[in-house]
Specification:
The protein has 5 helices and 9 strands; from the N terminus they run βββαβββββααβαα. The chain is α+β, with helices and mostly antiparallel strands. The strands form 3 sheets. The chain has a 4-stranded mixed sheet, with no helix packed on it. The longest helix is centred in the C-terminal third of the chain and has 22 residues, at 158-179. 25% of the residues are buried. The mean pLDDT is 83.
Length: 191
């Protein structure tokens, strides 16, 4: 049911919940350390609205009510630090690419730079088990949903949320522009 996106004709990949039953959907399943910009290299066969997948033994979906919504995702297992990335609307995710969904897009956008901040990085170092506290490039660490959910969220007024969201969106745009020049990235537009 999963394919690399280049294995599926572009006209069969859809990014809309309304037309999702007709094709393949971008699939978030973790990936490499790349803050802000996900590399959605996988697509999932969503023809027949996922009924074929759901009818397969041991296949199942967690929180399908949140599929196709925008949010933040991050690789659950990595040899680097936490790497939150903006997940666009029209995607499906799984436990290897946990997703933070909310009703306030501005607050979600503000959470990305917060999760990438040094204070959060240091908190995570204290929170991961001693066997998982490693430096970049060594043994993998796990950023489970429970661990990330237990991070304290600072109280912020509307002005701070707006400013952090602006920083996050600006960073995403700049990094997405860089990714769009990389032939192997899903944002690549051509020479």
């Amino acid at each position: 049911f999963l394919r690399l996106n280049w294995e599926v004709p572009v006209d069969r990949i859809v990014v809309s919940a309304q037309s999702s039953s007709r094709g393949w959907i971008p699939y978030s399943k973790g990936g490499e350390y790349q803050p802000y910009v996900p590399s959605l290299d996988l697509v999932i066969d969503w023809r027949n609205a996922g009924v074929d997948i759901a009818s397969t033994p041991k296949a199942g979906f967690r929180n399908p009510q949140h599929f196709f919504r925008s949010g933040l995702t991050y690789p659950e297992r990595t040899t680097s630090g936490l790497s939150p990335q903006y997940l666009p609307q029209g995607c499906i995710f799984d436990s290897q690419g946990p997703t933070i969904i909310g009703d306030d897009d501005t607050l979600i956008a503000a959470m990305c730079p917060i999760l990438l901040s040094r204070p959060v990085s240091h908190l995570l170092e204290f929170m991961v088990s001693s066997g998982d506290a490693v430096s970049s490039g060594s043994a993998a660490r796990h950023y489970s949903q429970g661990l990330v959910n237990s991070l304290p969220v600072p109280e912020m007024n509307e002005a701070i949320i707006e400013r952090l969201a602006s920083i996050g969106v600006d960073s995403w745009r700049k990094l997405n522009d860089i990714a769009a020049n990389n032939e192997t990235h899903t944002s690549f537009l051509g020479p």
